[in-house]
Design goal:
Length: 158
Protein backbone atom coordinates (compact mmCIF):
# COMPACT_ATOMS: atom_id res chain seq x y z
CA UNK A 1 0.00 0.00 0.00
CA UNK A 2 1.27 3.45 -0.81
CA UNK A 3 1.70 6.07 1.86
CA UNK A 4 -0.49 8.76 0.30
CA UNK A 5 -3.74 6.78 0.53
CA UNK A 6 -5.65 7.89 3.59
CA UNK A 7 -6.44 4.98 5.86
CA UNK A 8 -10.09 5.05 6.82
CA UNK A 9 -11.79 3.72 9.92
CA UNK A 10 -13.19 0.84 7.81
CA UNK A 11 -9.65 -0.08 6.69
CA UNK A 12 -8.31 0.08 10.26
CA UNK A 13 -11.11 -2.22 11.48
CA UNK A 14 -10.36 -4.79 8.76
CA UNK A 15 -6.63 -4.59 9.49
CA UNK A 16 -7.21 -5.09 13.23
CA UNK A 17 -9.31 -8.18 12.42
CA UNK A 18 -6.56 -9.56 10.17
CA UNK A 19 -8.78 -9.55 7.07
CA UNK A 20 -6.93 -9.10 3.76
CA UNK A 21 -8.11 -6.24 1.55
CA UNK A 22 -6.80 -3.58 -0.81
CA UNK A 23 -7.55 0.13 -0.80
CA UNK A 24 -8.20 1.30 -4.36
CA UNK A 25 -8.44 5.05 -5.04
CA UNK A 26 -10.57 6.45 -7.85
CA UNK A 27 -11.35 9.86 -9.30
CA UNK A 28 -14.42 11.45 -7.68
CA UNK A 29 -16.95 13.34 -9.78
CA UNK A 30 -19.06 15.42 -7.37
CA UNK A 31 -21.80 15.60 -10.04
CA UNK A 32 -21.84 11.84 -10.53
CA UNK A 33 -21.61 9.77 -7.36
CA UNK A 34 -23.25 6.78 -9.04
CA UNK A 35 -21.72 3.32 -8.72
CA UNK A 36 -21.51 3.15 -12.54
CA UNK A 37 -19.01 6.01 -12.46
CA UNK A 38 -16.98 4.26 -9.75
CA UNK A 39 -16.94 0.98 -11.72
CA UNK A 40 -15.81 2.87 -14.83
CA UNK A 41 -12.99 4.52 -12.88
CA UNK A 42 -11.91 1.16 -11.43
CA UNK A 43 -12.16 -0.58 -14.81
CA UNK A 44 -14.30 -3.27 -13.16
CA UNK A 45 -17.74 -4.69 -13.99
CA UNK A 46 -20.55 -2.83 -12.24
CA UNK A 47 -21.79 -6.17 -10.85
CA UNK A 48 -18.71 -6.28 -8.58
CA UNK A 49 -18.97 -2.69 -7.33
CA UNK A 50 -21.43 -2.76 -4.44
CA UNK A 51 -23.31 0.20 -3.04
CA UNK A 52 -24.33 0.54 0.60
CA UNK A 53 -27.87 1.81 1.18
CA UNK A 54 -29.36 2.72 4.55
CA UNK A 55 -33.07 2.22 5.02
CA UNK A 56 -35.60 2.61 7.82
CA UNK A 57 -38.17 -0.06 8.49
CA UNK A 58 -41.55 0.69 10.09
CA UNK A 59 -40.90 -1.84 12.89
CA UNK A 60 -37.19 -2.39 13.39
CA UNK A 61 -35.61 0.96 12.55
CA UNK A 62 -32.46 1.33 10.49
CA UNK A 63 -30.88 -1.42 8.41
CA UNK A 64 -28.43 -1.70 5.53
CA UNK A 65 -28.67 -3.27 2.06
CA UNK A 66 -25.45 -3.83 0.12
CA UNK A 67 -26.08 -4.54 -3.55
CA UNK A 68 -24.50 -4.40 -7.00
CA UNK A 69 -24.18 -0.84 -8.24
CA UNK A 70 -26.54 -1.38 -11.16
CA UNK A 71 -29.42 -2.68 -9.02
CA UNK A 72 -32.28 -0.66 -7.59
CA UNK A 73 -33.43 -1.50 -4.09
CA UNK A 74 -36.77 -3.30 -3.99
CA UNK A 75 -38.43 -1.78 -0.92
CA UNK A 76 -40.86 -4.70 -0.50
CA UNK A 77 -38.01 -7.22 -0.46
CA UNK A 78 -35.94 -4.95 1.82
CA UNK A 79 -38.83 -4.72 4.27
CA UNK A 80 -39.37 -8.49 4.23
CA UNK A 81 -35.72 -9.46 4.80
CA UNK A 82 -35.39 -6.96 7.66
CA UNK A 83 -38.56 -8.07 9.45
CA UNK A 84 -40.54 -4.94 8.59
CA UNK A 85 -43.90 -4.38 6.90
CA UNK A 86 -42.54 -1.43 4.94
CA UNK A 87 -39.19 0.29 4.41
CA UNK A 88 -37.89 3.48 2.84
CA UNK A 89 -34.49 5.01 2.14
CA UNK A 90 -33.43 7.38 4.90
CA UNK A 91 -33.16 11.09 4.07
CA UNK A 92 -29.74 12.27 2.90
CA UNK A 93 -29.48 14.63 5.89
CA UNK A 94 -29.83 11.63 8.26
CA UNK A 95 -27.00 9.63 6.70
CA UNK A 96 -24.05 11.35 8.39
CA UNK A 97 -25.57 11.62 11.90
CA UNK A 98 -26.85 8.01 11.80
CA UNK A 99 -23.86 6.27 10.18
CA UNK A 100 -20.90 8.65 10.31
CA UNK A 101 -20.71 8.48 6.51
CA UNK A 102 -21.71 10.78 3.63
CA UNK A 103 -23.44 9.96 0.35
CA UNK A 104 -20.95 8.41 -2.05
CA UNK A 105 -18.77 7.31 0.87
CA UNK A 106 -21.02 5.04 2.92
CA UNK A 107 -19.29 1.79 3.91
CA UNK A 108 -20.92 -1.30 5.40
CA UNK A 109 -17.89 -1.43 7.73
CA UNK A 110 -17.52 0.74 10.81
CA UNK A 111 -20.79 2.63 10.99
CA UNK A 112 -21.41 4.62 14.20
CA UNK A 113 -23.41 1.71 15.57
CA UNK A 114 -23.79 -1.75 14.07
CA UNK A 115 -26.93 -2.02 11.96
CA UNK A 116 -28.56 -5.18 10.61
CA UNK A 117 -26.91 -5.64 7.21
CA UNK A 118 -27.97 -7.68 4.19
CA UNK A 119 -25.83 -8.42 1.13
CA UNK A 120 -27.34 -9.29 -2.21
CA UNK A 121 -26.53 -12.97 -2.92
CA UNK A 122 -24.62 -12.24 -6.15
CA UNK A 123 -21.71 -10.98 -3.99
CA UNK A 124 -20.85 -14.63 -3.35
CA UNK A 125 -20.31 -15.29 -7.08
CA UNK A 126 -17.05 -13.31 -7.06
CA UNK A 127 -13.56 -13.78 -5.65
CA UNK A 128 -13.65 -10.12 -4.70
CA UNK A 129 -16.04 -7.19 -4.64
CA UNK A 130 -15.65 -3.49 -4.01
CA UNK A 131 -17.36 -1.49 -1.28
CA UNK A 132 -16.77 2.07 -0.17
CA UNK A 133 -13.85 2.55 2.20
CA UNK A 134 -15.87 5.22 4.00
CA UNK A 135 -14.88 8.29 2.00
CA UNK A 136 -15.49 9.39 -1.57
CA UNK A 137 -12.63 8.42 -3.85
CA UNK A 138 -11.60 5.21 -2.08
CA UNK A 139 -12.90 1.65 -2.43
CA UNK A 140 -12.07 -1.52 -0.53
CA UNK A 141 -11.38 -4.60 -2.67
CA UNK A 142 -12.19 -7.62 -0.53
CA UNK A 143 -13.38 -11.22 -0.47
CA UNK A 144 -17.19 -11.06 -0.15
CA UNK A 145 -17.33 -14.06 2.19
CA UNK A 146 -14.81 -12.52 4.59
CA UNK A 147 -16.59 -9.16 4.51
CA UNK A 148 -20.03 -10.68 5.08
CA UNK A 149 -18.70 -12.68 8.03
CA UNK A 150 -16.91 -9.63 9.45
CA UNK A 151 -20.00 -7.40 9.46
CA UNK A 152 -22.28 -10.28 10.49
CA UNK A 153 -24.49 -9.74 7.47
CA UNK A 154 -27.32 -11.81 6.10
CA UNK A 155 -27.73 -12.80 2.46
CA UNK A 156 -30.81 -12.01 0.39
CA UNK A 157 -33.01 -12.96 -1.35
CA UNK A 158 -33.71 -15.62 1.24
Amino acid sequence: MTGHIQKTNAARLLEAAGIPFELIPYEVDEDNLAAEHVAEQLGEPIEQVFKTLVLRGDRNGLFVCVMPGDMEVDLKVAARISGNKSAAMIHMKELLPETGYIRGGCSPIGMKKPLPTFFYESALLYDYIYVSAGIRGLQIKISPGKLIDFVGAGIYPL
